[in-house]
Write a structure and sequence with these properties.
alpha/beta; TIM Barrel; globular
Length: 93
């Protein structure tokens, strides 16, 4: 499930908990309008939930935040950091 406040009208954490309770195995945090600090806070909340529900956690665009919260992966778009650079930072987990 990809969180998107603009589409769901729910906070990222609320959308994540609802879908995890329904059996989702992967949560992807997508946020284009918050500051890095706000995204990091959201990511920490979702990481806690995904660990509790044994689900994977992917973060869009932000390699640094993914590293900080021990996300399972990063979704990189065409205009984001090159994959080989992200792998140097994140390593292979």
């Amino acid at each position: 499930m990809i969180t998107d406040r603009a589409v769901s009208g729910l906070s990222h954490a609320e959308a994540a908990i609802r879908t995890l309770k329904a059996g989702a195995r992967v949560i992807q945090l997508r946020e284009k309008k918050l500051t890095k600090k706000e995204i990091c806070k959201e990511a920490l909340n979702i990481r806690e939930l995904t660990l509790r529900y044994r689900a994977l956690f992917i973060i869009n665009d932000h390699v640094d935040i993914a590293l900080a919260v021990w996300a399972d992966g990063v979704h990189l778009g065409q205009d984001d950091m090159p994959i080989h650079e992200a792998r140097k930072i994140l390593g292979r987990r």
